[in-house]
Amino acid sequence: MQSQAPMVYIITYGCKVNYYESEAVASNLNAMGIVNQMVADGAISHLPSAAVFVINSCAVTSMAEKKSRYGVSKIKRYHPQAHIVTMGCAFGRKTAEMVALEVADLLQINDKKTSVISTTGVVVRHQREKAFIKIQDGCQNFCTYCIIPHIRNKIEYRPIDDVITEIKAQSSYVTSVVLCGINLCYYPDFAALCRAVDACGIQWEISSLEPPMMTANLIDTLRQCHNFVPHFHICLQSGCDEVLRAMNRHYTTQEYADIIQALRAAFPDATFGTDLIVGFPTETDAAFQTTLSYLQKLRLDKIHIFPYSPRIGTPAAELPLIQNSIVTARVEQVKKIAFGVE
Ligand code: SF4
Q: How far does the centroid of ligand 1 lie from the alpha carbon of residue 39, in Å?
C-alpha cells in the first residue's frame, strides 16, 4: 500500500483504449518511482492537491469533448499551482488553442512527436478483476460522422509476442483480459492472436468488433478457443442500408444479421451488444422505422445509443441536423426495444 500522497493524479474520460493508456502511464510512472493514482472523472471536485494532473480526454461525441475540457478548467480553477498534462483525442487538434489559453503545461503525451511517457508496454495491475489490453491503435475508415480518423489515423498494432508477454505478466492478478483497440479490423492476423491469447489459459474477451472482420474463419477460430468469453459487441450504427452507406460503413444490414446468426449457431449462450447512432442527418422517419423493426427482429441484448452529435471537420457535420425533439423521441423508442419494454 502506498503511504505517500500521490504526486500525480490521472483522470480518464472515454473508451477502453483510454483506460488502458492511463494505466500504462500509471505503470510507467510507478516504474520511475513517481507516486500516482487513477481517478474517476466524477471525483475531480474532491481531489487534494498534487503536483501534476494528467487528463486523458475523449472526443468521440461533442458531449465527451465538452466533459474533458470542463475537467481541465475545473482542475485549473481548484489547483492553480499544479501542472496539467493532457492526452487523448479531445485535445489532439487543439494544441495551439490550449497553449494560448495557458491551460495545460504539456499536451498530448501520446502524440509521437512529443511523447514523454509511453502509453503502451507491460502494464502492471493489482487486484483488478478485468484488465484491458490494447492491441491496436488508429483508424482510417473515415465513417462520415467520426472524428477519430482525423485525430488517430496512424495504424499501429502490437506484435503477438508483445501482447502475450503483457497478459502473462499479470495473469496472477486479474481474472480476465479484454482485448481492445480503436479499430481491430486493422490487426493483421487477428485469428492467430486469438489462438495465442487463448493458450495463455486465462479467460478473455474482445471489447468491440467491426462487422467486416467477422469472417467464417474468425468465428471458427473463436469457437475452438476454450477460454474465450462469448460476449460480442459488434458496432451496427444503423439498421437501414441507405443510412449505413451515407455513414460510409462497409456492410449491409443483411450481412450484419448473417453474422449474428452464424455466431448464435456457433455460441448458443452468447450475448450481443452494439452501438447505434440515432438521428444521423440522413435518417428520415422511414429510415428510422426500418432501423427499429430491424432491431426488433435482431433481438440484441444491449444497445448503446448515441444521439447523433456533429463533429466539426467531418463530412456529416456539413449536413442539416434533425430537430432535437425528434432525435430524443427516437432515442426513447430504441430504449424500449433495448430494455424489452414496449
Ligand atoms: S470504424 Fe468508423 S466509427 Fe470506428 S473509429 Fe473508425 S471511423 Fe470511427
A: 27
Output the pLDDT for position 302: 93
Of the candidates 215, 207, 294, which has an alpha carbon nearest to the alpha carbon of residue 262? 215
Q: Which residue's C-alpha comes closest to atom 4 of ligand 1?
A: 183
Per DSSP, which regions of 146-260 are E strands? 156-157, 176-180, 203-206, 231-233
Residue 237 one-letter amino acid:
Q
Task: Count up the domains in the chain and report the number.
Answer: 3
Among candidate residues 198, 229, 260, the one where a domain is terminated: 229
Domain closes at, from 229, 261, 277:
229
Whether 201 and 132 map to the same domain: the answer is: yes
What is the per-residue pLDDT for 24? 84
Using the mean position of ligand 1's atoms as its centre, give its distance from the Cα of residue 142 in Å: 6
At 341, is the pLDDT very low, low, confident or very high (cuts 50, 70, 90)? very low
| Ligand 1 centroid from CA 201, angstroms | 31
Question: Any idea which residue has 474463419 for its cell?
Answer: 217
| Pocket perturbation via mutation, ligand 1, pick of 139, 251, 311 by most ligand atoms within 8 A of CB | 139
Are 200 and 266 members of one domain? no
Question: How confident is the model over 159-199, as pLDDT tens digits?
Answer: 999 999 999 988 888 889 999 999 999 999 999 999 999 99
